Amino acid sequence: MTKIQYHPTDDTLSRYAAGELDPASCIMLSAHLEFCSQCRQKVTDYENIQARQMMQNAPEPLSDELTHMLSGILKQTPVKPVDPECQTVTAETHTQFLKVNHKSFRLPRALKRHESHIGPWSRLPGNIKRANVTTGGQSKMNFIYMDCNSSLPQHTHQGSEITLVLAGEFHDEHATYYPGDFVLQNDHHIHTPKTSAEQDCLCLTLLDAPLRFTSGLATLLNPFSPIFFR
Ligand SMILES: [Zn+2]
């Protein structure tokens, strides 16, 4: 049974279905959809609604015959977004793995074509490893691996931070997050992500501005916060 409690907003899912998101956000959404049948269904519903709206807004009235043919096609085939990054997740037989800390983790299918743009792993303070994913946009995508018993200093965000849990779990002051959870944080949120002594965690994150550290000695890290934003 899935424990997913955090999902993208309906507005974001609708924009994904319409192919309106930037490539990096599309990857984050696609990777969440691999875990979440509830959001996959919503995306299919939005695609069908948008396709019907396109038909209704067609400049020339369609003949009865053509309308009948189009509605037959719509019943059979979900409409795919135009952007190749936004393609609905499909079943793949070939699986790729990400290796860190002598462990192998299944790479989200959404990142299959980006394998050559991942890494290498580098160390961050607090027993955390990070591997950058080059996506070409302004925002920064990273795999973050938190070993057992590790923590990131308390921080807030100058922009937004999306964290998608891929394996294991982590917690902060607000909740515990499990695989598939899509956690959106912004400058209203202050948190201290941690792992327990028994469980490590692999996440995919997307940041659109450097973090800002908020407590104790960690505030001394602020001049270096761009190292968390690469
Ligand atoms: Zn979902």
TrEMBL record:
What domain of life? Bacteria
Give the matching InterPro entries: Anti-sigma_ChrR, Anti_sigma_zinc_sf, ChrR-like_cupin_dom, RmlC-like_jellyroll, RmlC_Cupin_sf, Znf_put
**Which parts of the chain are coiled coil?**
none
Q: Where is the signal peptide?
A: none
Q: Which Pfam families match?
A: Cupin_7, zf-HC2
Q: In this protein, which residues make up the domain named Putative zinc-finger? A: 12-40
The cross-references to CDD domains, in alphabetical order and at most eight, read:
cupin_ChrR (cd20301)
Q: Which residues form the ChrR-like cupin domain?
A: 120-205
Database matches in NCBIfam families: anti_sig_ChrR
Q: Protein name, please?
A: Anti-sigma-E factor ChrR
Species whose genome carries this gene? Vibrio aerogenes CECT 7868
